[in-house]
């Protein structure tokens, strides 16, 4: 790790700041609401993404209550380990927000009225037609030793401190205010100081093998990865995102290494990869349908509209999606989709035969080019001999014929609905790209 | 803080465990993906909510990378401060998951094969038709000194350790596996050890007013709340959960106070409350339909199947839900649902007239007792003069007639789809209970 000395001149003071080319950062989120579970801390993941993109490694994220002693103890530890500490929250005008007072104590400074901040607050509240009160005015009091990071989106300013070779930044917890200050002030200030290590991620989306089986298949690939590249498995409802992370001194080398390893990965598991970038199956399907000017419709039983919902979650889906029928009752399967009475009698509603007739039925009904149908048992009840909860039959129909399959997943209803839907989308995608 | 000694007997060992009636807990989330920002840590907020509900105060939440040294250091500190440490993540079968190995090091124990865990893994994978490989089998190796918390939803078991008067529990990071183990094993084990629950929550579900307006309406109610009761607003897609929290020495008094305040709340906003317990609109609708032996179907355009998905997410919905049509294209609206050409020409597809014909059409098509239909502009494109993105027309049809309304929400596609669906469910619920 190389170390350089940066001399930074600010409006109010001059200091010598030691920064590392491979900077380590910690994020501290302050607020009782995080510890009671009332608020999910989405800020820290957003900040972590931005810092990583800027080449800064985040080594820890903490959430602590609005207690001065806790804030001081965690700051003392953090600046020993890290060159950057980013604090969110506790800057509101109410009495439970104590961050600013506590930072004064930690940095041995005092609050002083800042006219620019006061002007900004007057302007913001004026626009909303709100009169300034004492609580608002107190938000213009800032620690004397900090550099103010102006908040154009709200009344609490960001604050930049330096101590013992570390940068400590405090920003509000309101997500859009925090994002504005981090993007428009914190990252540019850090970039000015010449941080150069590049961390670049590449995501490869797979479906078709569970994590352990995929990992087994990739044992050799992983063992032969160059030292600068790490592989992570990020599974979600059957889809596994493979993330390659390159950590290099220069971005060009990192991108080259990622290109090489992505090519090897593609050659190793070509049949499992559905995208070489972060994408959902429904997005990839939308793109493949658009590329082929094909239209699509779906007939759902056990997935209850979820496939339709996923497809229509993609902006522009009306260009290729005609519609769907959720045939929850057998009578709808027969009257609307034309499933034959004897198919249900002979094979049951949960059968590849029924799924096939549903897929053909919706294709005829809507006049679409390709369709997918599902029928199964999401649970908790509905199991029959030989067909446990978790069974799903899926069929895809197009002018190339009707393909179907039967799968068994788990026992949890909501999870089954998700897994069934993803399995159906994958079968659909494979049939689309064969066109 | 009073302290009591609990003697706990397990299958394999006997220990004296010191627990506090006011227990402090910390949550540690392990995984590089949390520190790169690729994954938002939603687990910790969920766990914090559950622990708070059980009367346990969460004093810190941390996210750290998959590094043995960091895991050990944070555990050393955590057990000095807290009586309960809950660790999530890092239990997958792949080489980047090192939690189990590190826990062995921390507790001075070794991995031993656990036959019950192996049986569970075989069963889970067997159901999915997947053959066991070495990585799967290795998940049955658990630290010798731990009590295994069986994971019925996945292959990685939870683990319960005790050291220096603290309980340390490790659970997988996959949210539904984590939730299962915490709810079904961790909380019951803690309850067995006599932690006195002093915090009781009551949830009252509302729809119909935004948060600020609801808060204004409840200003007087809030001001007159007894000191032991706190009110919180928990909004989500238009539904606002009002949570009354009682903090008392005795549960009987807490329940009495909650009953009293709930009655006052009901008298204050009777038209907004749809449940006096934690419930979704789709669950309440299911109950109301079942109570009246009514059947239901839906015709969706802009909500794209989401209403159908929400309704079928409720176990047992096949008793009242017949099915749905997602009529994304106008031709499906006309051919399947019988919307008149001239209705679309005169009023547009996004109109209360079209919604009304869609609701009547699906009722005729399926023979259901009551139906709901949506047509709107989820965005980002599709706005027309006088109908901005975020516009939705909703109609409910039954033998009592067809009722419709037009609403305007925001500009975000996914959020609009959720808001449209919730608005439709609320209109449906009001019509059902008038029957």
Per CATH, the architecture of the largest domain in chain A is 3-Layer(aba) Sandwich
Give the strand order of the largest sheet of chain A, numbering strands 1, 2, ... along the chain.
Answer: 4-3-5-10-9-8
Termini Cα gap of chain A: 53 Å
Query: Low-confidence spans of chain A: pLDDT under 50, at least 5 residues?
Result: 1-21
Shape of chain A: elongated
Helix content of chain A: 25-40%
Oligomer: homodimer
Radius of gyration of chain A, whole Å: 28 Å
The number of domains of chain A: 3
Largest sheet of chain A: 6 strands, mixed
Biggest chain contact: A-B, 92 and 91 residues
Number of strands of chain A: 19
Q: Counting H and I runs of at least 4 residues, what is the number of helices of chain A?
A: 16
Q: Beta-sheet strand percentage of chain A?
A: 25-35%
Question: What would the CATH topology of the largest domain in chain A be?
Answer: Molybdenum Cofactor Biosythetic Enzyme, Chain A
In round numbers, the mean pLDDT of chain A is 90
- The H-level CATH homologous superfamily of the largest domain in chain A, spelled out, is MoaB/Mog-like domain
The CATH class label of the largest domain in chain A is: Alpha Beta
The helix/strand class of chain A is: alpha/beta
Structure commentary:
- The structure is a homodimer of 435-residue chains.
- In chain A, α2 (43-53) runs parallel beside α7, α3 (68-81) packs across α4 (99-107) and α11 packs parallel to α16 (413-433).
- With 435 residues, chain A is an alpha/beta fold.
- The first copy, chain A, folds into three domains: 20-192, MoaB/Mog-like domain (Molybdenum Cofactor Biosythetic Enzyme, Chain A), CATH 3.40.980; 198-275, Alpha-Beta Plaits; 281-433, Alpha-Beta Complex (Maf protein), CATH 3.90.950.
- The first copy, chain A, is built from 16 helices and 19 strands.
- At the A-B interface, α2, β4, α8, β12 and α12 of A face α1, α2, β4, α5 and α6 of B.
């Amino acid at each position: 790790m190389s170390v350089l000395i940066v001399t930074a001149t600010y409006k109010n003071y001059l200091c010598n700041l030691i920064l590392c080319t491979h900077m380590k950062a910690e994020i501290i989120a302050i607020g009782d609401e995080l510890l009671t579970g009332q608020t999910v801390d989405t800020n820290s993941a957003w900040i972590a993404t931005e810092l990583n993109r800027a080449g800064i490694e985040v080594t820890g994220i903490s959430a602590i209550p609005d207690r001065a002693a806790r804030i001081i103890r965690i700051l003392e530890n953090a600046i020993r380990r890290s060159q950057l500490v980013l604090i969110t929250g506790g800057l509101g005008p109410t009495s439970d927000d104590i961050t600013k007072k506590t930072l004064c104590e930690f940095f041995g400074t005092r609050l002083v009225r800042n006219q620019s901040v006061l002007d900004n607050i007057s302007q913001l509240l004026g626009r909303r037609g709100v009169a300034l009160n004492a609580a608002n005015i107190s938000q213009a009091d800032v620690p004397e030793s900090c550099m103010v990071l102006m908040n154009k989106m709200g009344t609490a300013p960001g604050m930049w401190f330096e101590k013992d070779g570390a940068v400590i930044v405090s920003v509000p917890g309101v997500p859009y205010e925090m994002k504005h200050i981090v993007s428009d002030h914190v990252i540019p200030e850090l970039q000015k100081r010449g941080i150069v290590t590049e961390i670049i991620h590449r995501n490869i989306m797979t479906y078709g093998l569970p994590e352990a089986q995929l990992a087994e298949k990739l044992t050799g690939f992983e063992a032969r990865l160059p030292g600068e590249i790490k592989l992570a498995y990020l599974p979600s409802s059957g889809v596994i995102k493979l993330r390659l992370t390159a950590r290099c001194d220069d971005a060009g080398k990192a991108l080259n290494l990622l290109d090489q390893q992505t090519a090897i990965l593609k050659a190793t598991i070509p049949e499992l990869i559905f995208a070489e970038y972060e994408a959902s199956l429904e997005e990839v399907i939308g793109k493949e349908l658009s590329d082929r000017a094909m239209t699509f419709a779906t007939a759902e039983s056990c997935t209850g509209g979820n496939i339709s919902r996923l497809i229509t979650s993609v902006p522009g889906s009306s260009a290729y999606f005609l519609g769907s029928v959720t045939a929850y009752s057998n009578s709808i399967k027969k009257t609307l989709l034309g499933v034959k009475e004897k198919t249900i009698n002979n094979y049951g509603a949960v059968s590849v035969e029924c799924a096939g007739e549903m897929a053909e039925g919706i294709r005829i009904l809507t006049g679409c080019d390709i369709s997918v149908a599902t029928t199964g048992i999401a649970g908790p009840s509905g199991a029959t001999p030989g067909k446990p909860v978790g069974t799903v039959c899926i069929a895809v129909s197009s002018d190339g014929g009707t393909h179907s399959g039967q799968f068994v997943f788990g026992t949890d209803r909501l999870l089954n609905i998700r897994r069934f839907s993803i399995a159906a989308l994958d079968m659909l995608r494979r049939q689309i790209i064969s066109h």
